[in-house]
Write a structure and sequence with these properties.
CATH topology: Lipocalin
Oligomer: single chain
Number of helices: 1
Order of helices and strands: HEEEEEEEEEEEEE
CATH class: Mainly Beta
């Protein structure tokens, strides 16, 4: 009986080095794409009470922002369009609510993504302003911070699943 033992080893010189930058670039590349999800159209007041948008003419409908989150390399974008849902009926709004457009940056650490958005513009939105000492008014920059958890089926953001569009 004859045994042949073969042992192959890679040396540091012929094996690619796996660096933190390589891992980060791989994660960022895998994240690239468009994610679609719903977010309730609600605000939390200064007392911590959640108040959701309601249309008095259609009180049974629940309002959401249909959100498109796009990740491109080191940039991130969010487009939000108002919709209302009652049972299995979805209505797309032309002017109710608001149409938000954000751009921003993000950082990943393990399976957590920290996102910092700045509102680019908004259609049908009120704008918060502050009065300056000279009597003029200045628009206050609107920011939105989010935390996402990377899941096998998409991104979990504030309890809502955003699925990656194929």
């Amino acid at each position: 009986m004859t045994f042949v033992i073969y042992n192959s080893c890679s040396t540091k010189s012929d094996a690619p080095e796996i660096t933190q930058d390589f891992i980060k670039d791989t994660i960022v590349g895998a994240l690239n794409g468009v994610y679609i999800g719903l977010e309730e159209m609600c605000l939390v007041d200064s007392f911590g009470k959640k108040e959701c948008y309601e249309d008095p003419s259609k009180p049974n409908r629940k309002w959401y922002h249909l959100s498109y989150l796009t990740i491109e390399s080191d940039s991130i974008f969010l487009e939000q369009n108002p919709i209302s849902i009652y049972k299995k009926d979805t209505s797309f709004s032309t002017s109710d609510g608001a149409f938000y457009y954000y751009n921003g940056i993000y950082k990943t650490e393990d399976s957590i993504i920290t996102i910092d958005f700045k509102m680019d513009h908004c259609d049908y939105c009120p704008h918060e302003v502050k009065k300056l000492d000279n009597g003029q008014f200045e628009e206050i920059e609107q920011r939105k911070k989010m935390t996402a958890v990377i899941r096998s089926n998409g991104l979990l953001i504030n309890g809502y699943l955003f699925k990656k569009k194929n």
